[in-house]
Amino acid sequence: MLSQQFSLSDPASQWVIVNKHRPLTPLQFVPADLAQPRVQLAASGEASLLNSTTAGAAEKLFAAAAVDGVTMTLASGYRSFQTQTATYDGYVSTRGQASADTASARPGFSEHQTGWAFDIGDGGGACSFEPCFADQPAAVWAKANAYKYGFVVRYPWMLNEITGYYYEPWHLRFIGVEAATDMAKRGIGTLEEYFGLEAAPGYP
Question: Which residues cross the membrane (predicted)?
Answer without folding.
Answer: none
